[in-house]
What we know:
Thiol Ester Dehydrase, Chain A, alpha+beta, about 40% strand, single chain, 2 helices, 8 strands
Amino acid sequence: MKITFEELDRFLREQFPQGAAYGTLRKLGDGWAEMSLDVDDGHLRPGGTVSGPVMMGLADVTLYAALLSRIGLVPLAVTTNLNINFLRKPKAHTPIWARATMLKVGRTMGVGEVFVYSEGGDEPVAHSTMTYSIPPKKHEN
């Protein structure tokens, strides 16, 4: 693992302050991460369920954390593709959490998957696959 939980948590708070709107880092390992989000009225769509963009944001930031665990603090690693399947209705006003796992990390790309859960539920409410572009390393002279 290239970074510690504390280093990544500090990085996300300082360099990605809007990230708190998408979730809080709970756990971090080599190539995986877990984040959670307390769901409030601002996260709900008509019909009383968590909106798709909220789940997508949580999934995206969680995979970003999993990727950075492998490559270090690389701010310009960016999402190039995100596919998500919404599997079942999350519970309103119940926290959601995500677990991301890197499937492959190369020199220029990282591919991973994320499962999103409604707290207390055994079955995922969404599943996402993503590709991240990793910027080339700068060579020192």
